[in-house]
From TrEMBL:
Domain RNA polymerase sigma-70 region: 60-125
Family matches, as PANTHER family: ECF RNA POLYMERASE SIGMA FACTOR SIGK (PTHR43133:SF66), RNA POLYMERASE ECF-TYPE SIGMA FACTO (PTHR43133)
Protein name from the UniProt record: Sigma-70 family RNA polymerase sigma factor
Region (Disordered): 1-36
Keywords of this entry: Sigma factor, Transcription, Transcription regulation
GO molecular function, one term: sigma factor activity
GO biological process, one term: DNA-templated transcription initiation
Family statement drawn from the similarity comment of this UniProt entry: Belongs to the sigma-70 factor family. ECF subfamily.
Residue intervals of the RNA polymerase sigma factor 70 region 4 type domain: 159-211
């Protein structure tokens, strides 16, 4: 996230860097300080961050951002989303610094836990959204064809179906055929025809209306 901490200083950003023997990969900014703070130093830095010290936060960011990004990208597996999640974790450190307790573990361990939790939450959110979209597409698919399909099989002969199909546009005919005879979902039809999903949904709806009217099916 790009929300700056109090005081107006924006969070440092992630950018692609090259590693030896490999192509460009997305990794956090390198350390600006000459050495990494040790566990005791990080605990002290965290205390300063909890008091609103922006310079201390910059030091904390440099020390922990590479680790955070590494943890997140292993779970999320998507570079752009990993950058977003990593920034969210760093914002969590700024906002929740006062909640850190040294007796519960090191700053590094606490941060790693936050990073992993955030990454898992993102994966679950993305998967849930995909599941909802797939379920909605399936419902739309079945609802649309329930108006026509059952009555086509019981009341209309194949010649009439073929005649009515010829009255559709090429895209409508292909989409309806793949969905009705092939049993494909809207998304699968879109992938097969290499056509955007919204276009397929619109053409399918219009095609089914024309097909229903042609065959004299009442709903």
């Amino acid at each position: 996230m790009d929300t700056p901490p109090p005081g107006g200083r924006p969070l440092p950003s992630f950018r692609p860097v090259a590693t030896a023997g490999a192509g460009p990969v997305n990794q956090p900014l390198p350390f600006r300080s000459p050495g990494r703070p040790g566990p005791a130093d990080l605990a002290e830095v965290m205390e300063q961050v909890a008091r609103g010290d922006k310079q201390a936060f910059s030091t904390l960011y440099d020390a922990l951002a590479p680790m955070v990004f590494g943890i997140v990208v292993k779970v999320v597996r998507d570079r752009a989303q990993s950058e977003e999640v990593a920034q969210e974790v760093m914002l969590d450190l700024w906002r929740q610094a006062a909640r850190y307790r040294p007796d519960a573990g090191s700053v590094t361990t606490w941060t790693a836990t936050l990073a992993h939790r955030r990454a898992v939450d993102r994966v679950r959110t993305v998967q849930a959204a995909a599941d909802r979209e797939q379920a909605q597409a399936a419902r739309e698919h079945h609802t649309a064809f329930d108006e026509v399909a059952e009555q086509v099989e019981t009341r209309l002969d194949s010649e009439q179906v073929r005649r009515c199909l010829r009255g559709l546009t090429e895209l409508q005919r292909q989409a309806v055929t793949l969905a009705y005879y092939g049993g494909l979902t809207y998304r699968e039809v879109a992938q097969t025809l290499r056509t955007p999903l919204p276009t397929i949904k619109t053409r399918m709806r219009d095609g089914l209306i024309r097909l229903r009217d042609c065959m004299g099916v009442t709903t």
